[in-house]
Amino acid sequence: MKKADTHHIDILGELLEEITPKEQKRMENRMRLAAKIADGIEAKWGSGGKGKLAEALGLKGQSLVTKWLSGTNNFTSDVLSDIQDVLGIKLLALEDKQPAKEQRDVYEKKDVVVNIFVKAPTALSMEAFGSQAYTFPLKHAVGQSYLN
Amino acid sequence: MKCKLVKLEQLSGNEATLYSVLLENEQKTLFERFIDKHINSFRSEIREISGRLRAIGTEVGAREGWFKHNEGAYGDFCCALYDKPNKKLRLYCIRYGSQIVVLGGGGPKNVRAWQDDPDLTTEMEWLKELAKELGQRLEDREITYTRDFLEFEGDLEFDI
């Protein structure tokens, strides 16, 4: 069976080249997000569920939901949070309660730094003043470490 | 007026095939004529629409939500694509599921309904005729879908 001939449009090529990879990715992600919401509506209420989402979110009509599903909308995190709660789907990936490994490493290194620059001079200062209780100002304590 | 469907290679991909219409003795498709006619006044909108069409063909498919429906007669699958809902420019299309879109012409819609604008009416009425003929051929199986539903096969030349 015969298929259609292919056709190339020069000016379309120019327009597509003007779109940066970042812009194209943003367009695609807006569309993917809309598709995920549309699938969530379909799974929860079947076709025609736009009105039910609007109702669940307290919206006056479903025109805003139609706009969301057009794949052109730039969502706020508040709106995504509300939608995912109603639909029972994940639109915001916030399930990681522990910091990523790289972040933990940074925090651990910061602890070491704190031990060197704050705790150690404080201990020294206590030795210097014998058993007398003395509240050493933090900036002086840090300064001591440079003196030693 | 004789015409045929042509596959737009720059927009088509694994998710959808985008066709436009080449009129007899013309070098440019309806979609290309739409670009030429409106590029000076609506460059950013046409750029955005082009990017969305590429995303449809290669990444996300022609999902129902991307289009404004009920533009033609009941069941003829005529619809409109826009860059953003509050913008004026409309590109009229015929959508067959999430895998095939035929791009027609269009223009700025400054009226409530396309029927109130003579240029848009011409564009849309012509596309409706094509949709009717294409629909009939699909029904008669003179045109069929490929096994992956991504393309049409059969006699893709029309006299509208």
State the assembly state of the protein chains: heterodimer
- Coarse structural class of chain A: mainly alpha
What's the Cα radius of gyration of chain B?
15 Å
Residue windows where pLDDT falls under 50 for at least 5 positions of chain B: none
In terms of structural class, how would the helical and strand content of chain B be classed? alpha+beta
Number of strands of chain B: 8
Report, as a whole number of angstroms, the end-to-end distance of chain A. 88 Å
Task: Name the chain pair with the biggest interface and residue counts per chain.
Answer: A-B, 31 and 45 residues
Radius of gyration of chain A: 29 Å
Strand content of chain A: under 5%
Share in β-strands of chain B: 25-35%
Topology (SSEs and partners):
The complex is a heterodimer of chains A (148) and B (160).
Chain A: E1 5-7, H1 10-18, H2 21-45, H3 50-56, H4 63-69, H5 77-87, H6 101-128, H7 138-147
Helix pairs in contact in A: 6-7
Chain B: E1 2-8, E2 17-23, H1 30-38, H2 43-60, E3 78-81, E4 89-96, E5 100-108, H3 118-139, E6 143-145, E7 152-154, E8 157-159
Parallel strand pairs in B: 2-5
Antiparallel strand pairs in B: 1-2, 1-8, 3-4, 4-5, 6-7
